[in-house]
């Protein structure tokens, strides 16, 4: 949790006084709040007046329905850490067509935004079951404004128009309108916060929350904030703080701990009444710390800051952000909206007929493709990536008897070039999968991008009918899984390195049907050794941040069985090449079997039997055997650098400890 920078005793005293305060009965301010409530679309009756002056806490029953409507616009945000598997989590909410608001300490830069995944609907239904979520990517190139965490700590960023799977428009979630005018609330009135604490399901804190301090006219820095008592936690950063009218009054960004100065060092009071040095307490679970209040950025101040930033010379103007400022300041409402409504969007529950139509449409396979020029400029696999040049392999007679390479528009050598990897596709209508793939991996420049919802695309450079799509993988009548997974040949993370835009491009490129091969779901999800060979070899050489080139593909055999018109491979192979600090080349070859699942295939039903790979299905083999079995011909440098010295038939691998390789 971000910690408030205001640490003096005066603030603590004002917060304590605010906890006991009842709203002031100032007629002019009361009128202001009633007008705001009416503009927000919440309605006004006699109970509202009593509530505003603190004489009752009754609200209309539509408070609950409007709260559900407002919650649709709230999402959780995941930003992968620069290295490793860690992630930073936060909350955000939609504030206009294709615009999201969160904290700067959640998304601090356009690069952070490009890595982030935004997830709507991560919440429980009425029966306590987790709902299906919808994921979106951010597009900072279409709009990005931020204020540093030490200032107003906000980020406004554009979001993609459609979800990662292409099935849901962002407009389905509506948005929460920001109003730059002041006077929406008062000390002593209630606050409501919708949030994703600790990256958990969506939560709401109700009624025990009051605004305890409203700005500070004597101090311009403090005047940017509101303080309120509530239950929030890590991950709540970026949450929306509402009035009873579901009007956003501030952006949650920090907590105010109960501080004490002991022997010249700052301590925090804990919930058990003890204290701990601040340097230790800041790392404790948030429920162990006694918090005086939470702190949020006032919307009026936030909008004013956005106006100032976008007016600065050299700022890259955005029509989306310009529209936000015009709407929030009352100059011009968003197109198609009624001015002043605090919650904008479609009805909470669609008509039954519309729900059925939408559900049916989302069940149908969608044929995703890119524009014809999408891959222009892709360099693909580089033969000079390692200190020892390694050209792409060639197709020998044993390979060509199973099909010929697909013709690629714009490539005389029929190589499909993607970001950091290449594919040569078998055009045999009974195969329609890669002869081989080749990828360069740069350990020093690797970027950890979280996997989103899988959306596979047809490559426009070859005819769609030569690419296996959802017709092979989807819609089988089984309870929870289709018979075959969409198995990556080039692992998704292998080419994901370099500058963030390039890494994201590489990540997306791996989701081409040309890089997909049918893998029985138990094999694909259970073969940890197979999936982890690249990592193991990268981290067990004598060179830190090692580079590698990896070749992989299916083994085509004459006895492969047919499923939905496609001959299913029983084996997959992999060849890995690395160099040491003396630029000496080392290679190794591997074969893995899904034979148990690719023979005697049931007709469109999940077989009874094992659901993971058996011992002895992973093998280290001579690279020469891979050449012999597949007909994929590698350069002599690959063959002569093979570290394997076992039997020519190969050696079964039980764990990575059995691998013969270059040791540290």
TrEMBL record:
Claim: Metal-binding is one of the keywords in the record: yes
Keywords assigned by UniProt, alphabetized: Metal-binding
Domain DNA/RNA non-specific endonuclease/pyrophosphatase/phosphodiesterase: 417-641
Pfam families documented for this protein: Endonuclease_NS, Trypsin_2
CDD domains listed in its UniProt record: NUC
SMART domains with a match to the protein in the record: Endonuclease_NS, NUC
Catalytic residues of the enzyme: 488
GO MF terms, alphabetically ordered: endonuclease activity; hydrolase activity; metal ion binding; nucleic acid binding
Keyword Metal-binding assigned: yes
Binding, Mg(2+): 524
Entry-linked InterPro entries: DNA/RNA_non-sp_Endonuclease_sf, Endo_G_ENPP1-like_dom, ENPP1-3/EXOG-like_nuc-like, His-Me_finger_sf, Non-specific_endonuclease, Peptidase_S1_PA, Peptidase_S1_PA_chymotrypsin
Top-level taxon of origin: Bacteria
Gene3D superfamilies for the chain: Extracellular Endonuclease, subunit A, Trypsin-like serine proteases
ENPP1-3/EXOG-like endonuclease/phosphodiesterase domain boundaries: 420-641
Name of the molecule in the record: Serine protease
């Amino acid at each position: 949790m971000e910690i408030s920078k205001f640490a003096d005793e005066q603030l603590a005293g004002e917060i304590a006084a605010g906890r006991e305060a009842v709203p002031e009965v100032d007629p002019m301010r009361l009128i202001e709040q009633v007008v705001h409530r009416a503009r927000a679309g919440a309605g006004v009756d006699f109970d509202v007046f009593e509530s505003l002056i603190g004489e009752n806490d009754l609200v209309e029953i539509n408070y609950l329905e409007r709260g559900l409507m407002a919650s649709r616009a709230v999402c959780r945000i995941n930003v992968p850490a620069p290295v490793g598997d860690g992630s930073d989590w936060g909350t955000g909410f939609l504030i206009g067509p294709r615009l999201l608001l969160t904290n700067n300490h959640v998304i601090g830069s356009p690069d952070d935004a490009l890595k982030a995944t935004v997830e709507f609907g991560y919440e429980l239904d009425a029966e306590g079951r987790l709902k299906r979520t919808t994921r979106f990517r951010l597009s900072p190139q279409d709009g990005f404004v931020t204020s540093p965490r030490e200032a107003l700590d906000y980020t406004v960023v554009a979001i993609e128009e459609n979800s990662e799977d292409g099935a849901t428009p962002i407009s389905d979630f509506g948005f929460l309108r920001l109003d730059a005018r002041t006077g929406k609330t008062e000390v002593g009135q209630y606050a409501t916060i919708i949030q994703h604490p600790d990256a958990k399901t969506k939560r709401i804190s109700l009624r025990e929350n009051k605004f305890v301090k409203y700005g500070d006219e004597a101090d311009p820095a403090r005047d940017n904030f509101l303080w309120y008592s509530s239950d929030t936690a890590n991950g709540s950063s970026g949450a929306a703080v509402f009035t009873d009218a579901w009007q956003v009054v501030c952006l949650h960004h920090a907590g105010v701990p109960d501080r004490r100065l002991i022997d010249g060092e700052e301590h925090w009071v804990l919930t058990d009444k003890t204290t701990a040095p601040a340097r230790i307490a800041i790392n404790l679970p948030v429920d162990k710390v006694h918090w005086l209040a939470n702190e949020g950025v006032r919307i009026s101040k936030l909008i004013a800051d956005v106006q100032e930033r976008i007016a600065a010379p050299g700022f890259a103007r955005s029509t989306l952000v310009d529209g936000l400022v015009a709407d929030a300041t009352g100059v011009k409402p968003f197109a198609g909206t009624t001015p002043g409504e605090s919650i904008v969007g479609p009805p909470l529950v669609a008509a039954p007929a519309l729900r059925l139509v939408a559900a049916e449409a989302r069940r149908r396979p969608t044929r995703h493709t890119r524009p014809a020029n999408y891959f222009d400029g892709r360099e693909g696999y580089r033969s000079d990536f390692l200190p020892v040049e390694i050209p792409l392999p060639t197709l020998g007679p044993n390979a060509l008897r199973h099909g010929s390479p697909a013709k690629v528009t714009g490539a005389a050598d029929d190589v499909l070039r993607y970001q950091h990897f290449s594919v040569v596709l078998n055009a045999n209508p009974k195969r329609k999968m890669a002869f081989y793939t080749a990828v360069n991996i740069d350990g020093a420049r690797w970027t950890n991008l979280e996997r989103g919802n899988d959306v596979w695309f047809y490559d426009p450079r070859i005819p769609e009918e030569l690419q296996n799509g959802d017709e092979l993988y989807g819609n089988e009548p089984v309870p929870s899984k289709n018979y075959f997974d969409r198995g990556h040949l080039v692992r998704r993370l292998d080419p994901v390195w370099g500058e963030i835009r390039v890494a994201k491009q590489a990540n997306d490129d791996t989701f081409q049907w040309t890089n997909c091969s049918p893998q029985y779901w138990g094999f694909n999800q259970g073969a940890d050794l197979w999936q982890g060979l690249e990592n193991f070899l990268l981290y067990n050489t004598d060179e830190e941040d090692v580079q590698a080139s990896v070749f992989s593909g299916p083994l085509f055999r004459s006895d492969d069985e047919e499923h939905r018109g496609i001959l299913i491979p029983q084996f997959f192979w992999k060849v890995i090449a690395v160099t040491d600090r003396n630029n000496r080349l080392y290679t190794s070859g591997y074969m893995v079997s899904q034979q148990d699942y690719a023979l005697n295939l049931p007709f469109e039903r999940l077989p009874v039997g094992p659901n993971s790979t058996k011992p002895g299905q992973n093998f280290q083999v001579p690279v020469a055997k891979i050449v012999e079995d597949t007909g994929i011909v590698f350069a002599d440098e690959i063959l002569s650098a093979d570290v394997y010295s076992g039997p020519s038939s190969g050696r079964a691998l039980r764990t990575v400890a059995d691998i013969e390789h270059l040791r540290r």
